[in-house]
Write a structure and sequence with these properties.
The protein is mostly beta strands and 105 residues long. The chain has a single domain (7-103), classed as Sandwich (Jelly Rolls). The protein has strands spanning 7-9, 14-16, 21-28, 33-39, 42-48, 51-58, 60-64, 72-75, 79-82, 86-92, 96-103. Strands 1, 2, 3, 4, 6, 9 and 11 form a 7-stranded antiparallel beta sheet that branches. It has a 4-stranded antiparallel beta sheet with strand order 5-10-7-8, with no helix packed on it. Strand 7 (60-64) and strand 8 (72-75) form a beta hairpin. The chain starts with 6 loop residues before the first strand and ends with a strand.
Length: 105
């Protein structure tokens, strides 16, 4: 899906790691949430309460998922899932554009 229709956008940005990771929250008609963001080069750790589905829209992202010791490279057009109530790491060598969908379980 290249576009998202009928959403409410939260104007204030989510800013992490001194501005190296930023996103905007979208609230869908059904109340579910997504974020659209950019990750600049660096290594970062995030925690999540909800399950996440992360789509890479542009660039590349190395990901270390919970309970894994192996970094996996995800490129444009690929996605990965993060379990709820967990932490994961990402590493970028170039800017990465992403869409994160929060999945209520």
């Amino acid at each position: 899906m290249d576009e998202i229709k009928n959403v409410t956008i939260v104007k204030k940005a989510n800013v992490y790691y001194g501005g190296n990771v930023t996103s905007r929250t979208l609230i869908m008609e059904d109340g579910s949430k997504k974020t659209l963001g950019i990750i600049l080069p660096g290594e970062y750790e995030f925690g999540t309460a909800a399950k996440e589905h992360m789509e890479i829209l542009a660039g590349k992202l190395n990901v270390l998922l919970p309970d894994s010791e192996t970094w996996v490279l995800y490129e444009e057009g690929h996605a990965f899932d993060v379990p709820s109530n967990s932490k994961f790491k990402v590493s970028a060598d170039e800017p990465a554009d992403y869409c994160c969908s929060y999945i209520e379980e």
